[in-house]
Amino acid sequence: MSILSRDDILSLVTGDPPLVENYLDLEMQLQTNGFDISLRSISRLTSCGRLAQDNKERMISTQQKLEFAPDGTIHLDAGSYSITYNEIVHLPKDVTALGLPRSSLLRCGACIHTAVWDAGYHGRSESLLVVHNALGLDLEKDARVLQLVFSRLTGSSPGYAGAYQSENIT
Predict the structure, then answer these.
(1) Do the Cβ atoms of 47 and 61 come closer than 8 Å?
(2) How far is Cα 44 from Cα 86, in angstroms, rounded to an integer?
(3) Model confidence pTM above 0.90
């Protein structure tokens, strides 16, 4: 497995389908070793979730969407939130991605927890934002909050075919 460079990412972003679409500013978001993705929406978790041995028994926590102020900002108290990104990702069957919080977010006392973006996945992903800072966190809509780092697989993959394929696109 090898991490894709800026040039590799740019080549895939300008391909068909694009590796990433709905980005806000390609030059700002394209990084040396990844691609910054930005905040579209924030929701509060409003119910208990459930994971079981079989996905038929899985129950995802319900969410209540939070609204940004007229100036495009929101204050979040310490706690856990679900966030959705602006960008839609189209991973080829030989590319996977890992999401890492931007260091500025960490320096504000918050972190984003993610799962693996499986090869073959496409959609507008969600992640868990945890505000650890007791004073909270102020966020602006469209702020770059996470960097995706892409890796090429060493072998073939059938591609992701799970429940979250094409999520949040419509």
Answers:
(1) yes
(2) 18
(3) yes
